[in-house]
Write a structure and sequence with these properties.
The chain is α+β, with helices and mostly antiparallel strands. The chain has five helices and seven strands, in the order βαααβββαβαββ.
Length: about 160
Amino acid sequence: MTLVVRRAERPDWAALRAIRLEALLDTPDAYGSTYKTVVTYPEEQWREMIEHSLYFIAERAGRTVGMVSGGLNDQHPGTRWLYGMYVTPRSRGTEVAPSLVSVVVDWAKAESASELYLHVTSNVARAKAFYEKMGFAPTGERQAMQRDRRLTLVTMSKSLVQS
């Protein structure tokens, strides 16, 4: 079964909603929002989020198996963010997660970004190890998550400049 990773479009709102809610239930500490809040978003809000933000979804055999988002990085001009990544439990350890990172790396390079940043929650060791395997390294920056000050976000980055 072929994996397809593509940019989400307005008609994908229900698929994005379903995978995002699954992510928030599966690993709530990994995200800055909560299931309780996100489940209340109406259809039009999802459609507008897709239209005005950068979301990618991974699909296999017509099922959404992962998601990721990318965005600008105001803290470090000329760089971009990777955030909101999730892979369904059945697809972990496959090509899904590396493919999602790759699509954001490709987008950031096309935007002429020099680095790609992300935050990973310190208590989600599986995610931190995966990002290190993908070439991200801790920057030394750490901060408390806004929605839950007990959770620590570790900032990681990956150079996009060819050496």
